Predict the 3D structure of the following.
Amino acid sequence: MTFEPKRLHVAAIIFIFLKTMKETLLLLFSLIIIFGREQFFTYLLIATVTVACSIIIYSWLSWLRFTYSLDQNELKIERGIIIRKKRTISKHRIQSIHLSQNVIHRLFGLTQLQIETAGSDMNVDAKLTAISMEEAHALRNQLKFDQQNQDVTDVTDTYDYDYILDNQVPKYEASYKRLFAFGSTSGGFGVIVSILLFGISEAELFIPDAIYQSTSAWLFAQALGTLIALSMILFILMWLLGVLGSIIKYGDFTVVRYEKELYITRGLWEKKQLSIPLKRIQAVGIKQNIIRLPFKLATVYLEVAGGEVDQSENMRTIIFPLIKKSEFQTFLTTMLPEYQHTITEIHPVSRRLFYYQWCLLLLGASVVLTTTLLFVRPFWWISGLFLLVGSIYCYLDYRMAGVHLTKQQLTIQSMLLLSRETVFLKRDRIQALELKQSLLQKRLDIATMRTSILNNFIGRHYTVSGIKQSIHNDVTDWYSYRSDYSLNQVGIDLDIESKRE
């Protein structure tokens, strides 16, 4: 099957316009603030009209000069207004194909098709921003499956409710109750508060002086109780806004396990469909921030090799937003039976780690105390506060860290930025294993172990400190295939070492 060169749907002009306008806004407002303080709204109007007209012309030309075609075994894309760029993607190199829809896509019955390969580019390899659903599925089937060996009509890799019921395909759905709890305990609220505080600090530049001064005078004239009530109302509104953002982003979240891949759909405003081949999964992890720890709630994520770098999700793929720890074993057995649930068997690190970190902390507190006594004597108490907070952090770091080893899997648990992370690593997915020891660590017979895996194109590193060197030697032998431990023997060895502490 061969497609003749085609252009995207004309609605693609809208997406190019919005994307370009978004990238231009920051520069536009920066220039207006610097040069147009006296006549802000006049400059804003002139600049907006000029930039909008320029972007409309640019968007139309970009759409006009973008074509794509499909041969039997490759997708060809040509783009560029002045400098023409041609890209050919072989179907045999394609790792995944994703579909996504926002509100504009749905109005026109369109979708965005995104192709990723195992190349070294940190961006997606091809993105068709606006094509019909029928054409997207035809392209996906032609690119994803080998016509000589497999009939595309016999393959279902999209969310089909009847197919899932008939074939008893494993699937999990996130309820809106869970999504509400996810948004309530996530970090989205902090981001919104930061944006709000920045907007308040810069409000004087945008609000007329008379309104700004009268509002400030009214606030200062209010009683303390009124100000507290207003602050609480604002706090609740910001919290609800953060929760709403999480629900919109992860609404209708469903993950389905097919034979060779996981299929994820999510989003109310922008509907995303992600296909993750099992062979690209490098690790499975669960993360609990300081709010979720007391409630035993966690987010389940994957480390995936290749793909688009998404800073908003910390370059990880969430496969379930919020799950109870008591439910995780069933989830793992159902969706990813290749991995073993070993959380309850994790062995804590040596308590010497706490002593080691506390000695370093005490040294730092002494430096702070000396500095404050010499230069700012009234603030000598800062060193005590530094020591108290640091001691709590060191204790939590020690209590949360641990390791467990089976015949084919290494489990690492550690604390990162007041969040506990537990990661399940297969031996054949670990790219490097490293031992670190300072002179004091060597005297204490402890070490820091660091494992490295592929994740997107920059790698991911997991570190656990305070393990006994003998345990690290066992892990090193296991990783280098020098040992012939059975699954039970490795677990026994680790348990004996932990009890000796």
In short: The first strand starts at residue 3 and ends at 6. The two ends are 67 Å apart (CA to CA). The chain has 16 helices and 21 strands. The CA atoms of residues 289 and 419 lie 4 Å apart.
